Each structure stands twice: as structure tokens, then as C-alpha cells.
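Deliverable D2.4 — example input (C-alpha cells):
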């Protein structure tokens, strides 16, 4: 009976890892597509600025105010940076071999199963493993989240962590719901 239980656990862990990686891969592709779309919008605003400048110059008129357009471009730049940070957060994860879920590589304990650091192995790098992926950014150690409603404190060490975490990534203590 022990053999089948071990095999079942290994299969479950493998499925969790594969599912987590597929979710992260999809999330990263969505973010990259969104960045390309935003960059295309920026190009259209730059083209608009060029047209406005050309027409004003050609007509011998004073350059019209384009500060609204420049503000929009700055907002788009901020959106791009936020999405790049989200991609980086997805890349800064490792696989917990105990439960197969993706977790922040700086966590001292797996926030899902409480595995200790010596049990945690680094996941293959995406560039070298050709499209390796990781779990979605919603379940992090909480450091990246700025929404207090999505955070909770570890009763043992006081570390702020994501509400989805069952274990503190700092001390490994089980966190009550």
C-alpha cells in the first residue's frame, strides 16, 4: 500500500508543478502581449505629436499645447514598468519539491506546505529551459502586494504575508485562516 501512496503523492506533486508552471507561462505571455499593445499605443501618440508639430510648423503657427498627450505617454510608461515588474516577480520563483507549488526564492519556508529551506531546490531558469514557467503572482510571500486587504501577519514572527499562504515564508509557522 505504501508504494501506491508514494506514487500517488509523486503524481500529485508533478501535476501541481506542471499546473503552476502552465499558469505562470500563460500569465507572462499575457503581460508581454499587454506590453506590446501599450508600446503600440505610445507609437501612435508619438505619431500624433509629430503630425501636430508638422502642421503647426507648416502653417507658420505657434506649437499647440501637447502636455495632455505627454501625460498619457508617461502613464503608459508607468504601466509598462508595472507589467515588467510583474514578469520579474514571476521569474523570481522556485519550485517546492514537497508540494510542487511555485514560491518566492527568498522565502525561508514554503508558504503552502511549510517545507524547510534544505528541501527546496531551484527551478530551471526560463532562458535555459526554453519556456519554463512558474505559478501566478497572486500567491507570493506578500512582499510585492501593497493591498492591505490581501495581507495578514504571522502570529509567530510578525512577518507580513499574502492571505493565500498557509505557512509563513519567514518562520514556517502555520498561519490560521
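Example output (designed residues):
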Amino acid at each position: 500500500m505504501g508504494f501506491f501512496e508514494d506514487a500517488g503523492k509523486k503524481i500529485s506533486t508533478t501535476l501541481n508543478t506542471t499546473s503552476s508552471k502552465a499558469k505562470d507561462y500563460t500569465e507572462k505571455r499575457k503581460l508581454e502581449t499587454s506590453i506590446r499593445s501599450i508600446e503600440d499605443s505610445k507609437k501612435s501618440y508619438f505619431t500624433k505629436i509629430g503630425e501636430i508639430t508638422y502642421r503647426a510648423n507648416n502653417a507658420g503657427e505657434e506649437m499647440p499645447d501637447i502636455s495632455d498627450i505627454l501625460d498619457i505617454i508617461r502613464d503608459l510608461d508607468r504601466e509598462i514598468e508595472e507589467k515588467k515588474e510583474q514578469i520579474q516577480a514571476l521569474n523570481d520563483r522556485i519550485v517546492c519539491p514537497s508540494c510542487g507549488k511555485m514560491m518566492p526564492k527568498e522565502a525561508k519556508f514554503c508558504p503552502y506546505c511549510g517545507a524547510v529551506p534544505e528541501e527546496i531546490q531551484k527551478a530551471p531558469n526560463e532562458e535555459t529551459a526554453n519556456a519554463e514557467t512558474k505559478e501566478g503572482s497572486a500567491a507570493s510571500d506578500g512582499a510585492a502586494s501593497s493591498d492591505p486587504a490581501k495581507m495578514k501577519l504571522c502570529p509567530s514572527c510578525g512577518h507580513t504575508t499574502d492571505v493565500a499562504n498557509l505557512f509563513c515564508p519567514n518562520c514556517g509557522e502555520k498561519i490560521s485562516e
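The longest strand covers residues 93-95.
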